[in-house]
Amino acid sequence: MGTAKLKKMAANEKIQLFLRHYGPALLGLVVLVLVVHDIFGAHGYLAMRRTQQEIKKVNADLDQLNKENLQLKQEVKELKTDPHKIEKIARDELGLARPGEVIIKIPRSQQLPQDSIAKP
Questions:
Q1: What domain range is 64 assigned to?
Q2: What is residue 6's three-state secondary structure?
Q3: What does the mean pLDDT of the chain come to?
Q4: How does residue 103 score in pLDDT terms, banded at 50, 70 and 90?
Q5: Is there a domain that residue 119 lies in?
Q6: Would the pTM of this model clear 0.70, i.e. be above it?
Q7: Is the pLDDT of residue 8 over 80?
Q8: Are residues 51 and 34 part of one domain?
Q9: Using an 8 Å Cβ cutoff, are 44 and 38 in contact?
């Protein structure tokens, strides 16, 4: 046999000996690294849970905004069609009155608290 062939066989034997001796430990280390990566990695389990929680929060916010939107649509509809609502706003916020009515404004410092006003 040639020396090249002996060197090649010696190298193969060294590799086989190395793998027999350290192979299980290397395999265990690779598996451990993969498990840690699957848990803590950028697309791992913890990141997925965090993303799911963010999705739930965004969906809850979206539901709340949809409810507010419906309420505002209803209020706009009432403001366009309900004369009593329009009159209430005109009286309360703008201080308007019907012909022949007199508006008396009492300064806030002289007003009674709302809770102490007796209702008949």
A1: 43-96
A2: helix
A3: 86
A4: confident
A5: no
A6: no
A7: no
A8: no
A9: yes
71 and 29 within one domain: no
**48 and 91 within one domain:** yes
Would you give the DSSP letter of residue 101?
Answer: -
Q: Using one digit for the tens of pLDDT, what is the confidence trace for 17-35?
A: 988 999 999 999 999 999 9
Establish if 108 belongs to a structural domain.
no
Residues 5 and 24: their CA atoms lie apart, in Å, by 29
Q: Is residue 30 part of a domain?
A: yes
Judged against a pLDDT cut of 90, whether residue 56 lies above it is answered with yes
CB 87 within 8 A of CB 93: no
Spatial distance between the Cα atoms of 78 and 71, rounded to a whole number of angstroms: 11
Say if residue 85 is exposed, middle or buried (CB neighbours under 10 Å; 0-12, 13-18, 19+): middle
Q: How many structural domains are present in the chain?
A: 2
Residue indicated by tokens 């709340």: 64
CA 105/CA 107 separation, integer angstroms: 6
With 0-12 / 13-18 / 19 or more C-beta atoms within 10 angstroms meaning exposed / middle / buried, residue 91 is middle
> What φ, ψ does residue 12 adopt, rounded to 5°?
-65, -40
Q: Is 57 among the domain residues?
A: yes
